[in-house]
Write a structure and sequence with these properties.
The protein has 475 residues and is α/β, with parallel strands linked by helices. The protein contains 20 helices and 18 strands. Helix content is 42%, strand content 18%. Bound molecules: pyridoxal-5'-phosphate.
Length: 475
């Protein structure tokens, strides 16, 4: 068998036209548009050329580029090109509410309600008794009132919109007092001071970063003040030498001065997370019970529903929000509304909800369950991959993310991977670029697959993707 130098090896790369005659690609042409097959062929050939040019090898065996394996790479490339831009991925990062990975996964109840409403006409804004125009908000109002204990409720596109609408309707041209310790910036450019400015109200900051007292709020109240606002410090916590005014004290100060008490709860939850060994995250019910006039929170954080902004509170306030022209611009769409109603209904059964809402299921899994999954995956991978990598089950910590439980370390188990033939970052890249992308994390020079955020029905796909990424030639 002869050896080829780089130049000769490059000359062995077949022409596009030649390849299109191949049986394997012929059948591909019947399934997807011709331009995609052509793009797939060109991209693959470019990659092969680049691999040869950048390789340290000076000599290549005669049969270094078998036609079958080239066609397989082209098929894989075409499969990637014909996949929708927005597609599912596996979250093995250990961040439960990963904003960049779409936050909460919907429950099956929410998915089927969404499909039902999407598949035909629906009573979105119609009163079935009178046949007259109705309001889309009625579909969730009673549920939200029952679950939170509030008098009235409204839903909009997301929590940023909920805060914007609330301040625009209740405090335009007037002052709103906020603690310096609560000047939150949430990922994706939601900054409390900027949203307040946008709403046309004037932010008055009081206290210091670590300590704010009731007297600080009191001293800032003027005839221009409209409200006191409490913001949940979602993604950080001020610890150490700190002082924060309790919800009850803030409400009573506001009401003594005929001001509104508003709270942006951020994630917000309807269940007590200390039930599954986590630290206490303030619940919506607590904020309402403390007497807050309005409470806003997200639909797709700990609630585990679709992206939405939920506003619950006093009827007099919500009536003003409903009259504001921004409400139309921030309107929730019918698919989201369907998924949100179905999600909220699950909370009516306080026990089952932990199993039925995926984010609560992930949070409440026992370490023993996760260990079991991790050990099985670890064994399978080692068997299928042999000595191309070393796998181990390790103890680690996952996080809630999405601005919930910022300091909480949630015990988990990871399968750590140390590849032998490629670098950890190259493996990470291959996993992200595969047909079913895997998002993991890298620490201690190992790639970590966190099983706390992987659903049972994703385990076999996860294993296949890791095996593929470790065995894949070139690319
Ligand atoms: C997440 C968060 C928001 C933004 O909510 P979205 O639903 O993403 O618009 C606002 N305020 C706080 C405190 C948050 O944690």
């Amino acid at each position: 068998m002869g050896l080829l130098n780089k130049q000769e090896a490059l000359a062995r790369i077949p022409q596009v036209d030649q390849l299109l005659q191949d049986e394997a690609l012929h059948s591909l042409l019947e399934e997807v548009p011709r331009y995609l097959v052509l793009d797939g062929v060109r991209l693959t050939l470019q990659k092969v050329r680049r691999e040869i040019l950048t390789s340290e090898d000076l000599w290549y065996p005669d049969d270094f580029l078998p036609r079958e394996s080239l066609c397989r790479r082209i098929q894989e490339q075409v499969r990637l090109l014909s996949r929708p831009s927005l597609h599912g991925v596996i979250n093995a990062s250990g961040v439960l509410l990963h904003t960049n990975l779409g936050r909460a996964v919907l429950s099956s109840a929410a998915i089927s309600q969404l499909v039902e409403v999407a598949s035909g006409y629906a009573n979105v804004e119609i009163d079935e008794h009178s046949g007259e125009r109705g309001e889309r908000y009625t579909h969730v109002r009673e549920l939200l009132c029952r679950l939170s204990g509030a008098e009235d409720a409204l839903v909009v596109n997301n929590n940023a919109a909920a805060v914007l609408l609330s301040l625009s309707a209740l405090a335009v041209g007037r002052q709103v007092i906020v603690s310096r310790g609560e000047q939150v910036e949430v990922g994706g450019a939601f900054r409390v001071p900027e949203v307040m400015r946008q709403s046309g109200c004037h932010l008055v900051e009081v206290g210091t970063t670590n300590r704010t007292y009731l007297r600080d709020y009191l001293a800032a109240i003027t005839s221009e003040t409209a409200a006191l606002l409490k913001v949940h410090t979602s993604n950080y916590r001020v610890i150490g030498f700190t002082a924060e005014v309790s919800r009850e004290d803030l409400v009573s100060l506001a009401h003594q001065h005929s001001l509104l008490a508003l709270e942006d709860l951020g994630s917000g939850t309807l269940v007590d997370l200390s039930h599954c060994g986590l630290s206490h995250e303030p619940t919506v019910q607590e904020a309402i019970r403390a007497g807050m006039d309005l409470v806003t929170f997200s639909g797709d954080k700990l609630l585990g529903g679709p992206q939405a902004g939920i506003i619950v509170g006093k009827k007099a306030c919500l009536d003003r929000l409903k009259l504001h022209p921004l409400l139309r611009a921030l309107r929730i769409d019918k698919l989201t509304l369907a998924a949100l109603e179905a999600t909220l209904r699950l909370y009516l059964d306080e026990e089952q909800v932990w199993q039925r809402v995926p984010v609560l299921r992930l949070l409440s899994q026992s370490v023993a369950e996760i260990t079991d999954k991790a050990e099985k995956l670890c064994q399978e991978l080692q068997q299928r991959v042999g000595d191309r990598a070393e796998f181990k089950v390790e103890e680690d910590y996952a996080v809630a993310g999405g601005g919930a439980l910022p300091l909480e370390e949630i015990p988990t188990r990871v399968v750590s991977v140390v590849p032998r033939e490629i670098s950890v970052s190259r493996l990470d890249e291959r996993l992200r670029l595969g047909f079913k992308p895997i998002f993991s994390r890298i620490a201690r020079e190992r790639l970590l697959l966190d099983l706390r955020t992987v659903f049972d029905n994703e385990l076999s796909e996860l294993a296949d993707a890791v095996v593929f990424a470790l065995k894949e030639q070139g690319s």
